[in-house]
Amino acid sequence: MKPFFVFRGDDLLLIDNEAARLPEVGEVDDLKPFFLDSRCPDREGFHWAEVSPEAEAPPGMAFVPRRSLWGRLDERLFALSGKVFHLMDWHRTNRYCGRCGSPLSDHPDEKALLCGKCGHVLFPVIAPAVIVAVEREGKLLLGRSPHFPPGRYSVLAGFVETGESLEMTIAREIREEVGIEVCDFTYFGSQPWPFPRSLMLGFRARWKSGDIAIDGREIVDARWFAPEEMPDFPPSFSISRRLIDDFLQRHRNGRGLP
Ligand SMILES: [Zn+2]
Questions:
Q1: What residues flank ion ligand 1 with Cβ within 5 A?
Q2: What are phi and psi of 222, to 5 degrees?
Q3: Which one of 78, 177, 219, 254 is CB 3.0 to 4.6 Å from 73, fit for a cystine?
Q4: Where exactly are the structural domains of the chain?
């Protein structure tokens, strides 16, 4: 089976929305007049297209937000749809050379775009971000972003800025968002996060000093939660959920930070 990833904006086309099945090559011919760009296959063997905003899903199909496919597509296909979206988004946002303004084309040897006029080479942009589970005396720091569904809390995250080590980003983000100092960072794991082009790097950390003082902009509430008083938190698949599950499991087993 060769899935055909058809994107309209940030939404993905499904055939049979109930079963969350992707269409296959040959099943989306009705949409071809609406293709803005397509690669079939692209240099990595994926079939994808972006359609214009006025394109309607063919009968029996639907365009659905990618985030809603979390837990509906199997983990491998969800990750793959994110990777293909990242590549599609990279193409649609980099049609011209940023140095001389000429059209870009595929590089013959690299997974990159090339300017035939000035030789500028452009690789896909990946934006690293840290996500941090901070603990204090058996409690976990969780915060609420204004974009979260009502009642939802999660571990804190932020983008790496130019010139920063990951350790510097962790210290700055936690300080800026909730006003506390942290220490004893340990690496936990990572996850590509194609919304639209991040790589999340997960860490555990320990509270060092300070009381919670939210910034009121990126974080509208933050508290220390004991394992038995957890609020609503993100669904599975995400590294934020894996960090929270790790905290809960260690405390169920009577173990603190490693
Ligand atoms: Zn150029």
A1: 97, 99-100, 102, 115, 117-118, 120
A2: -150, 140
A3: 78
A4: 4-93, 96-125, 127-252
Distance 251 CA to ligand 1 centre (A): 55
Q: Could you read off the pLDDT of 55-101 as tens digits, one per residue?
A: 999 988 999 998 888 778 888 888 899 999 999 999 999 999 999 99
Q: How far is CA 106 from the centre of its chain?
A: 25
* Ligand 1 midpoint to CA 103 (Å): 8
Mean predicted confidence (pLDDT) in 46-59? 93
- Say what the pTM is: 0.86
Burial of 161 (0-12, 13-18, 19+ CB in 10 A): exposed
Q: Are 118 and 102 in contact (CB under 8 A)?
A: yes
Q: How far does the centroid of ligand 1 lie from the alpha carbon of residue 123, in Å?
A: 14
Residues 6+ apart with CB under 8 A from 69: 12, 14, 20, 78, 81
